[in-house]
Design brief:
It is a single chain. The chain is of the alpha+beta class and 452 residues long. It has 3 domains: 127 residues, Beta-Lactamase, CATH 3.30.450.20; 129 residues, 2-Layer Sandwich (Beta-Lactamase), CATH 3.30.450.20; 104 residues, Beta-Lactamase (2-Layer Sandwich). Helices cover 41% and strands 27% of the residues. It is flat. The relative contact order is 0.05.
């Protein structure tokens, strides 16, 4: 029976909830089908997208520079974790009633993995248009930010006025002194000011030189518009710039940040006075002439010269892009290796060379018929080897552990659950990497069928 003629699926697609079904054929994620509610919600009634790649059917650029990344991460989580994923509100523009004009939209997307025979075969997407809710909330937040900014400017003006009054009182006091006292005082002050200015200039020059050549990225953003007051060589390099960023608002110096959350994060730090720390912050930047994701260990530290009033934000960042990419490649390689091992029905095992503690994957347990909840021991596994091979396999294993040679042995063994005799082929060798530097004797085992 065709899955999509099944009465249950037909009823599901007949609901008023906008629903889309994608195939798990990454990276395309082909559009299988969708219901009428989805056509009306996304304005695709005049064209069919069935059979198209998800990315061809919907232009990723309309979802903002980080939208495709969020969608791919959500798809992968649903597939590999097998969990329903509720995404955060996603910005994706759709055509409006006016030709060639896009309508600003925000979407609430829930991704449900559909499992057949133990594998995620399809992804079911429930899509809700929440633009009115998001726009209304954004307007409220902007009004609050505006009021707070006006209050901050008023407080800053009061501080400056108070400082001016204090200076005026000091001037009046100095004018009341006699001419001789004033001349003597002026001479004394000139000497002190000269010495202090010289030391201050030398100290500031050293500090700026240290900061400018620091091995980590450092910047200072001033005021509610986050004007770049200072940026060292490393952060200018991270931003993919050469110069021309100082004394500009960050949104002007880095226009590629539009649609990304960083300005909002900086606004939040400025308003709350609470530092923002993210050990793996992703940003899409114009790096070496190409827009690409970069990852940073990032700190936004508010600076308050007046308690409760943030004047500047101190930024410290370390580029960890190579580390993150290497980790993701390793995770992908490990995932592909696990899939390959499972597909080939290969059992894996490892034995600590000192204590003979055995570890193995579920496939090995299935091959040898181990059905107990507790772990199988090394002695129990050896005990199931048939008599004609048991002494020999023990000697071969001990020899491989002793001299580090490759281990390869074909033998017969009695299954634990049904007593059936099976023929196995094992390969392995001693590797480092155990706890406390202990060596591990690791390898694989496959069952040799009668026709092999």
């Amino acid at each position: 029976m065709n899955l999509f003629t099944d009465p249950l699926v037909t009823a599901l697609l007949a609901t008023p909830v906008p629903t889309l079904i994608l195939a798990n054929d990454a990276p395309d994620f082909t559009v299988i089908t969708y219901n009428k509610a989805y056509e009306e919600a996304t304005y695709i009634k005049n064209r069919s997208i069935r059979g198209m790649s998800y990315w061809a059917a919907f232009d990723p650029e309309k979802a903002g520079s980080y939208g495709p990344t969020l969608l791919i991460e959500a798809f992968h989580e649903a597939i590999y974790a097998g969990n329903t994923v509720q995404m955060k509100p996603l910005h994706y523009n759709i055509p409006s009633a006016i030709v060639s004009v896009g309508e600003l939209c925000w979407w609430d997307i829930k991704i449900v993995p559909i499992v057949y025979n133990g594998e995620v075969t399809y992804l079911l997407l429930n899509v809700y248009n929440i633009t009115d809710k998001v726009v209304h909330q954004d307007a409220i937040e902007k009004a609050i930010i505006k009021e707070l900014t006006l209050a901050e400017d008023l407080a800053s003006s009061n501080v400056k006025l108070h400082t001016a009054v204090e200076k005026l009182a000091l001037v009046n006091y100095e004018l009341s002194l006699t001419k001789s006292q004033l001349e003597e005082l002026n001479q004394h002050l000139e000497n002190r000011v000269f010495e202090r200015s010289k030391k201050l200039f030398e100290s500031e020059a050293k500090q700026r030189q240290l900061i400018d050549n620091a091995p980590v990225a450092i910047a200072v953003l001033r005021g509610p518009n986050h004007i770049v007051e200072m940026a060292n060589k490393k952060i200018v390099e991270y931003w993919g710039k050469t110069n021309g960023v100082v004394n500009k608002p960050l949104s002007v110096a880095l226009p590629e940040l539009e649609g990304q959350p960083f300005i909002n994060i900086l606004d939040s730090v400025r308003e709350s006075g609470v530092p923002y720390i993210n050990p793996e912050l992703c940003a899409f930047l114009n790096f070496n002439g190409v827009y690409q994701p970069r990852y940073y260990d990032m700190i936004y530290q508010p600076v308050q010269y007046t308690p409760g009033l943030t004047d500047s934000i101190f930024i410290v960042a370390v580029d960890i892009t190579d580390h993150v990419n290497a980790r993701k490649k390793l995770e992908q390689s490990e995932s592909m290796l696990r899939l390959a091992i499972e597909a080939a029905n290969i059992g894996t095992w490892s034995v600590s060379t000192e204590e003979k503690i055995l570890k193995y994957n579920p496939i090995l347990a299935r091959i040898v018929g181990w059905e107990h909840e507790r772990s199988m021991t090394y002695e129990e596994a050896i005990g199931q080897v048939t008599d004609e091979y048991r002494d020999t396999i023990i000697k071969v294993i001990e020899q491989a552990i002793a001299d580090g040679s490759d281990y390869e042995f074909t033998y017969t063994q009695k299954r634990f659950n049904d007593g059936r005799i099976i023929r196995l082929k094992a390969k392995g060798r001693v590797l480092s990497g155990g706890t406390d530097g202990e060596r591990l004797f690791s390898g694989v085992v496959i069952e040799i069928k009668e026709d092999q």
